[in-house]
Amino acid sequence: MTDVTRSGCQPLEKSVQQIVDDIAAEVADKAAEIEAAGDAKEEGKAPGAFGIAVATVDDEIYSAGEATTPFPLQSIAKVFALELALCAIGDKVFDRVGREPSGDPFNSIVDLERTHGIPRNPFINAGALAIVDILVEELGDDEQASAVVNFVRHHAGRDTVPLNPDVLASEHEGGDLNRAMMSFMRHHGNLHGSLDAVMEAYVNQCAIMLDCRGLARTGLFLARTRRSRSDDAAEATAVRMRKLLGLMMTCGHYDGSGDFAVRVGLPAKSGVGGGIIAVAPERGAIAVWSPNLDQNGNSMLGVRALEMFGARTGWSVFGPPLD
């Protein structure tokens, strides 16, 4: 098979499978070194396992390492919830949430005071809860709690996707801060549904379990960014994907978003379950997983692997690799 991108770039020096094999081997070999330099959230942990998968727009999938080890999506699911909300009410979503990086921790309530109950973006917790509130309001009672679960199941091509019981328990039992944010937004008229209904749907989407192969397949829809003058549906989809990817690039890694953009050059979204989904427009989706996180809640081995992948493929949105 010849690796030529759809945009007409030169063939890759190695096949995608060779690249992911090389990256997985190098990350495994240098895991301790990478994590030692990664500003770890928890010091002294043994280097984590690592998996990677790439799903291409030509419906091929390539993987290496622990690519079939399941993990909870956590905040990665916020991307899929936002897609459903945009499909439901279009740009009215942005009357309820902003489109700017927050500059505060993902679970901060401080920013809501400054913005009178309007979260700065859809990927901080307050913004994600507002997005879920839209889904609760727009979807029927039989759909709202499982909307994102069903979306993931469909796009991953799986009959079922399990929910992580520990995440379900921890979010239900320790969701006081999220409930406080919802109450604050309700005070400002930016939360319309029942707090219990919003929490149930939010917890369910955080608890979705996938592996790297399933996550890469699920995220592949985001790579469909080619606009069309002759197909209104394709044009609408492409415009919507560009909005999602723009938010992923600027807000997808919380306070680490700028560093990630510089190092990797791909729109992406991380989760504290150790996963990251990255997107190369009109090329494919790349999923990585490793459990040990940096201070911003991003997988240390995952970020390094995506940096390596971007450099070796030239799939960065900022330009091709060095000749």
Averaged pLDDT, please?
91
Helix content: 40-55%
Q: List SSEs in N-to-C order.
A: HHEEEHHHHHHHEHHHEEEH
What is the strand arrangement across the widest sheet?
A: 2-1-7-6-5
Tell me the span between the first and last alpha carbons: 22 Å
Q: Could you name the ranges where pLDDT drops below 50 across 5 or more consecutive residues?
A: 1-9
Structural class comes to alpha+beta
Question: Could you please describe the fold and organization of this structure?
Answer:
With 323 residues, the chain is of the alpha+beta class. 45% of the residues lie in helices and 9% in strands. The chain has 13 helices and 7 strands. It has a 5-stranded antiparallel sheet with strand order 2-1-7-6-5. The two termini are 22 Å apart.
Summarize the structure.
The protein is an alpha+beta fold. The chain is built from 13 helices and seven strands. Helices cover 45% and strands 9% of the residues.
Q: Would you spell out the secondary-structure blueprint of this structure?
A:
Blueprint: H1 16-29, H2 31-36, E1 51-56, E2 61-65, E3 71-72, H3 77-89, H4 110-114, H5 125-138, H6 147-156, H7 165-173, H8 176-187, H9 195-206, E4 209-210, H10 212-219, H11 232-251, H12 257-264, E5 268-270, E6 275-280, E7 284-289, H13 300-313
Antiparallel strand pairs: 1-2, 1-7, 3-4, 5-6, 6-7
